[in-house]
Write a structure and sequence with these properties.
Length: 230
């Protein structure tokens, strides 16, 4: 099994085999918490206009997403797990758009299988990939705003890569240390309304969930994220 670590939208476009699109802060942590909160499914889309159109089609739905980390005007929820866990999503379709994560899913057009990746379900992702026994795995770290390398996404990629190769390492201190690097923004009082400290802790709960979210491309070009338990 060959494992490659790539970055940003270009990495998503060139990913092949099994592609894991990684966005720890916060898109694919949010997606896991939304499914855990009872969402019937998640539709991921790259654009705000597409999300608004989907909202018209799916009446029992909520709009979740961000631009510049903040909740988009007219949306129901921001891209925040803290908001998600306070919301009853049972039977609800979540329509999700973000700067990095969902954009990566849309652009992963050359992979055979596409799943989301985050620290909260990294172990499940490892187990899922092992069941597929692929020749090639592409780990795509989407980065901060899909343009700057993000320590949390690269660390998640390393966790998955190590797990696939059979390495048994402890990552607790490295995960905790993220609060002093890429996670510092969650502790800035100016960001409290849209990016609170609880988001950091919710996004870094390693293996909180024992399921994966597989991406299925829709006829309209958007992505259905479907849960598979491990």
């Amino acid at each position: 099994m060959k494992v490659e670590i790539m970055e940003f939208v270009e990495g998503a476009r060139t990913a092949r085999g099994v592609a894991v699109i990684i966005d720890v802060f916060r898109a694919f942590s949010v997606a896991c918490y939304a499914i855990d909160a009872g969402a019937s499914r998640i539709i991921a889309t790259a654009g705000v206009d597409e999300a608004l159109q989907l909202k018209l089609k799916y009446k029992n739905s909520v709009l979740v997403g961000e631009r510049d980390e903040k909740k988009i005007d007219g949306f129901d929820l921001g891209n925040s797990p803290t908001e998600i866990i306070k919301t009853d999503l049972h039977g609800i379709t979540v329509i999700h758009t973000t700067t990095a994560g969902t954009n990566g899913l849309i652009n992963a057009v050359n992979a055979d299988f596409v799943v989301t990746g985050s620290i909260v379900n990294a172990g499940a992702v490892i187990k899922y990939i092992k069941t597929l026994r692929p020749d090639h795995v592409s780990l795509v770290a989407m980065g901060y705003r899909a343009s700057v390398s993000a320590e949390e996404d690269l660390l998640c990629a390393k966790i998955i890569s190590d797990g696939l190769s059979g390495k048994d390492e402890h990552y607790e201190s490295r995960i905790s240390d993220l609060k002093n690097s890429s996670g510092k923004r969650f502790f800035n009082p100016a960001n409290l309304d849209f990016s609170p400290p609880t988001d950091f802790f919710l996004c870094t709960m390693k293996d909180r969930f024992n399921f994966i979210l597989r991406a299925n491309r829709r006829l309209d070009g958007n992505i259905d994220l479907m849960k598979a338990d491990l």
